[in-house]
Amino acid sequence: MTRPSHPTRFASTLDLSRLPWFDVRDGNRLVLVDDSVGPIIDMHTHLAMGYFRKLAVDLRRETPATSYYLPLTLPVDLDLYSNQNLDDAAMFAMKLDLSVLSLTGQGMRTTHTAPNLARDLRDLGIVYAVVLPIDMPVGMRNSDSVLEVAREYEELIPFGSVHPFDSDADSRLLTQRERGALGIKLHPNAQFVAPDHPKTVHLCGRCGTHGLPVLFHCGPVGIEPEAGRRRSQVFRYEKAMAENPDTTFVLGHSGALQFDEALRFADRYPNVLFELSCLGLPALRQVLETVPADRLLYGTDWPFYHQSLTLARILLATEGEPALRRAVLHDNAARLLGLRPETAAPLEDARRSAGGGGQEGGTGSEGD
Fold it and tell me: In this structure, what are the phi and psi dihedrals at residue 158, rounded to the nearest 5 degrees?
């Protein structure tokens, strides 16, 4: 079957409206207009986070617009890994926002709030978004903020986060699960600990014991410090997977710039799923062709990028394959999160059980 020819380079994110699935409303909102697409679950979003002092951003405050780290006005090439679309000014602004300004209540991060995320979800037909905090052993516990605010938004599904060096890691896992966390986020770069460190491997095992899937930031993205790049090499994730077969792992970004190395895990470890945010279109196509269809997940890395970027890539790569599209955009995530596949609801049942983290509902720089 010959697939329709579509552009992959755009003058801006809003210019994605040249694709048949999108349109621009009110001059600055890219919306999904194809009713055949959806429902959708986004497995990879963040809210503003604090690190070494109390978060100074009001996560409940709606602002007129969201400031994405990839501005809506910059050109977009869907064939590239998403961060390769940032120009020098945008890269500098992002790193400033995630470092110095993270100690303040200023910057783009003040727009990375729950109501702003919920607004974007409505525009793109996304019924749920998994919100991923990142915790350190000292300083601000971002998981507490996410678990608290997510209770006020039905469409936000909270994961927790525990640092492998936390002295009470196991009790924190249980507490977060009781508060509604449906999984745990680990980020070797942002948390300064490698995925093959014995404490990380042990923590992953405890997550499996408690029925909590682990969503790893996986792979180097090309803009992190050298030490972070060494920690996030794809080969370093295998130890945790091999030693914890009862834990479900989600590889955020599918290995990123080393996605081709991560693909070898698809055959070796049936407990590993691949989340697709940020991958360029050729890489995403290769992942779709290699990984079993029931182990692929849509994610976006909001607010680094508008959620339409990964959505557009998936719609292009699955054209003419409605079953694959439905699995990637919704059904696989619904199963992982313990939601009813047909409706992805009610979420409260999943939060109460808080043990449906496996693929069958029970197995079990922040910058990208």
Answer: -85, 140
Phi-psi domain of 253 (left: phi exceeds 0; alpha: psi -120 through 50; beta: other): left
Q: Judging by DSSP bridges, how do beta strands 76-77 and 9-10 pair with one another?
A: antiparallel
- In order of their start, the domains of the chain are 36-353 (3.20.20.140)
Grouping H, G, I as helix, E, B as strand and the rest as coil, residue 45 is strand
266-285 residue pLDDT tens: 999 999 999 999 999 999 99
10 forms beta bridges with 76
Helix axes 308-317, 281-290, angle to 10 degrees: 60
Looking at residue 64, its amino acid is: P
Q: In what order do the strands lie in the sheet with 40-45?
A: 40-45, 126-131, 156-158
pLDDT tens digits, one per residue of 110-152: 999 999 999 999 999 999 999 999 998 776 789 999 999 999 9
DSSP 4: P
* The Cα angle at residue 41 between residues 40 and 47, in degrees rounded to 5: 130
Q: Rounded mean pLDDT of the chain?
A: 91
Handedness of CA 42, 43, 45, 47 (dihedral sign): positive
Rounded Cα gap, residues 26 and 291, in angstroms: 39
Q: Given the DSSP bridges, would you call strands 156-158 and 214-217 parallel, antiparallel or unpaired?
A: unpaired
CA distance 186 to 165: 12
| Direct distance between the N- and C-terminal alpha carbons of the chain, in angstroms, rounded to an integer | 35
pTM: 0.92
